[in-house]
Amino acid sequence: MNTFEGNTADFLLIKSDRRFHRIKFDNIRFVEGLKDYVVIHLGDQKLITVMNLKTFHQKIPHDIFLRVSKSYVVNRNYIESFDHHTIYLGTNELPIGEVYKKDFFTIYSGGSISPEI
Predict the structure, then answer these.
(1) 3-state DSSP call for residue 8?
(2) 3 falls in which pLDDT band (50, 70, 90)?
(3) What kind of fold does domain 4-109 have according to CATH?
(4) What was the pLDDT predicted at 112?
């Protein structure tokens, strides 16, 4: 069983594959929600833990992480580029959900870019 254990200052503890992992927030590129699980993408490594994305997002700092769709939370420091529908992080392309689009553009661009096409 994999569970979320909590966070402290600049890292959190995740239980995955019967082990506890200490993960610095700076190392998390993005988090993918899959029903009752989250997949934490750490560059070349992925950790899976039992938790829904909404609960996970509540436990991490919102000044670093942005909810960009029903299924994704992204570390704003890893965003390389974006358009009105997609965020690009290296080889990963994450959709920007309609519900989250206005907040993403307001927060990420400081309101200087409109979410409208």
Answers:
(1) strand
(2) very low
(3) OB fold (Dihydrolipoamide Acetyltransferase, E2P) (2.40.50)
(4) 64
Grouping H, G, I as helix, E, B as strand and the rest as coil, residue 78 is: helix
Cα 77 to the center of its chain, rounded Å: 11
Instruction: Evaluate whether 14 touches 25 at the Cβ level (below 8 Å).
Output: no
From residue 12, give the alpha-carbon distance in Å to each of 23, 83, 98. 5, 31, 29
Can you tell me the distance from the alpha carbon of 5 to that of 99, in angstroms, rounded to the nearest whole number? 29
Listed residue (42, 112, 39, 47) closest to 72, CA to CA: 39
Percent of the chain with pLDDT over 70: 87
Q: How confident is the model at residue 107, as a pLDDT?
A: 84
Q: Of 60, 109, 103, 106, whose CA–CA distance to 81 is shortest?
A: 109
Q: What is the DSSP string of 81-114?
A: EE-SSEEEETTEEEEPPHHHHHHHHHHHHTT-S-
Confidence of residue 1 (pLDDT cuts 50, 70, 90): very low
